[in-house]
Design brief:
Elements: E1 2-7, E2 10-17, E3 20-26, H1 29-44, H2 56-66, H3 73-89, H4 91-94, H5 103-114, H6 119-140, H7 166-176, H8 187-201, H9 205-209, E4 216-217, E5 222-225, H10 231-234, E6 237-240, H11 243-259, H12 269-282, H13 290-301, H14 307-314, H15 319-326, H16 331-337
Antiparallel strand pairs: 1-2, 2-3, 4-5, 5-6
Helix pairs in contact: 7-8, 8-11, 8-12, 8-13
Length: 338
């Protein structure tokens, strides 16, 4: 966008696109406006920029190698799936020269996605894609400014309020063939056990599946977790385990020792996700995500411990996120206690 203003000797036009800023003074407003239009077109065409002719697809691949692939496996997998879908479903955008991508291009992507998914999903994807421009501008020198500044993204949605009910959990466990006194022998049963561990520890799926004889000290009721989602912020975590969780984990530990393996679980996070969805759908439990079990657990634990202890259990460094997102006790439940 060009900015025109009256000055002493005529009209001054200012143009800033792709990180390049140009100014000029012309005798009349019309001449200044014509200059601005021509200059802006030249910048967008690359005539004034000394940036490499790399495409968005190339930028994504470089970002994967430098950033995404260094994240925990479960997080990297989810990010890469979104990148794959972005490049596959929007080939024109993927093949466009990176520094020539404009706010209009991104607005078309936004509008197309809003016809298929919720605003919250679009916002989440945008938050993943925008850092590519930050790195490309500051380190790679592939562009001068980010076109994300030129578009309006959907407003953040309200946090989820769904929690699990014991009737739903029993149905899922029964469908999976789980007996909590007998170690799991199938992938479906392991999924049911992961569900129960989540309810009694408030841990994430990836953290649960990493449980092992070498990291879980059941005598001290502590799980040493060196790699996790917030590792870069808080370092290694030591997760306190509830007595109920320890009783469940003893069954898994005995099985792992008998079979000569270190890890308690043999399934991957991707398998757990697919099997949980299958169990949920065939038992007709509507809208319950596996991650909702973490919120359910934290809501139950909030009745037993103070907020600082709860944050230590969950690994949150932002108390507001813990309160606004994961504490899901209903107004009716609170009213019944006061």
């Amino acid at each position: 966008m060009a900015y025109l203003r009256k000055v002493k000797n005529g009209w001054r036009a200012e143009v800033e696109r792709a990180g390049i800023r140009k100014t000029a003074t012309r005798a009349t407003k019309a001449e200044a406006q014509a200059w601005a239009v021509a200059e802006e077109a030249a910048i967008l065409a690359g005539a004034r920029g000394d940036y490499p002719q790399r495409t968005l697809a190339e930028a994504v691949e470089r970002y994967r190698k430098e950033v995404t692939d260094k994240k925990p496996a479960s997080t990297a997998r989810a990010d890469n799936l979104r990148f794959d879908a972005w490049l596959r479903d929007f080939p024109e955008l993927a093949n466009k020269v990176f520094h020539q991508i404009t706010g209009d291009d991104l607005a078309k992507w936004r509008d197309a996605r809003l016809q298929q998914v919720t605003g919250a999903s679009v916002l989440r994807q945008a938050q993943q894609f925008r850092p590519i421009w930050t790195l490309a501008i500051k380190q790679w020198k592939w562009a001068g400014s980010s076109p994300w500044k030129e578009i309006t993204l959907p407003a953040p949605s309200y946090a989820r309020r769904r929690v699990s009910r014991w009737m739903e959990i029993r149905r899922i466990l029964r469908s999976a063939g789980v007996s909590l006194r007998v170690a799991p022998t199938t992938a479906m049963q392991e999924t049911g056990w992961a569900l129960m561990i989540s309810l009694h520890t408030a841990m994430r799926s990836g953290e649960i599946l990493k449980l092992s004889r070498s990291t879980a000290d059941l005598r001290r009721k502590v799980y040493e977790l060196p790699h996790h989602k917030t590792e870069a912020t808080v370092g290694a975590r030591r997760v306190p385990l509830t007595s109920r969780a320890v009783r469940l984990l003893r069954v898994l530990e005995a099985q792992a020792a008998q079979e000569g393996r270190d890890r308690y679980f043999t399934i991957t996070d991707a398998s757990r996700d697919a099997l949980y969805r299958k169990l949920r759908d065939r038992t007709m439990v509507e809208g319950l995500r596996f991650h909702d079990l973490r919120a359910t657990s934290l809501t139950l634990l909030s009745k037993r411990v103070d907020v600082m202890t709860l944050a230590r259990i969950s690994g949150h460094v932002n108390i507001n996120e813990l309160f606004n997102t994961y504490y899901r006790e209903s107004a009716e439940d609170i009213a019944a206690r006061i």
